[in-house]
Design a protein that fits this description.
Shape: globular
Order of helices and strands: HEEEEEEH
Radius of gyration: 18 Å
Distance between the termini: 37 Å
Strand content: 15-25%
Number of strands: 6
Strand order of the largest sheet: 1-2-3
Helix content: 25-40%
Number of helices: 2
Number of domains: 1
């Protein structure tokens, strides 16, 4: 009886882990697909991630930004999303070299940024933000 219960538990746990892994991978794929679609002037940006929250943002110009999602500023309770460690800056066409930006911030500095095309709709910028938040939810700080 105990073996049957243990076996059922292991199968269920494995299925949940597999399903979560698929979702982690699909979320990362979604981020990269959007970054590919809205890349800044042909500068393809790629995001790599591991299950401990380690992120590497890299581009074709050999800029590499490593950071961990758990090191970013937390979202204060009751505060708007733009006050979290992932800051969105929609494009302002009135500035020189207008671009959309995603900045990743710790308490002391901006540790990474992503520049995207100015014509990227705000909704798409928010989708990338939400994907990063979702990606973090699939990560475990204990392995960091």
């Amino acid at each position: 009886m105990k073996i049957a219960v243990l076996l059922a538990f292991l199968i269920t746990s494995s299925s949940l882990l597999y399903g979560q892994e698929k979702t982690f991978e699909k979320t990362l794929e979604s981020i990269n697909k959007r970054l590919d679609t809205w890349q800044e002037w042909g500068n393809l940006i790629t995001v790599s991630a591991t299950r401990n929250g380690n992120i590497i943002v890299s581009n074709e110009r050999n800029a590499i930004f490593p950071f961990n999602l758990f090191d970013l500023l937390p979202l204060p309770p009751g505060k708007p999303a733009e006050q979290s460690g992932i800051e969105l800056e929609p494009c302002d066409k009135k500035v020189h070299a207008p671009l959309s930006w995603i900045n990743f911030k710790t308490e002391n500095e901006t540790v990474a940024f992503i520049r995207l095309a100015c014509d990227m709709p705000l909704e798409e910028l928010l989708n990338v933000y939400n994907d990063f938040v979702l990606l973090k939810s699939f990560c475990t700080k204990e392995f960091y």
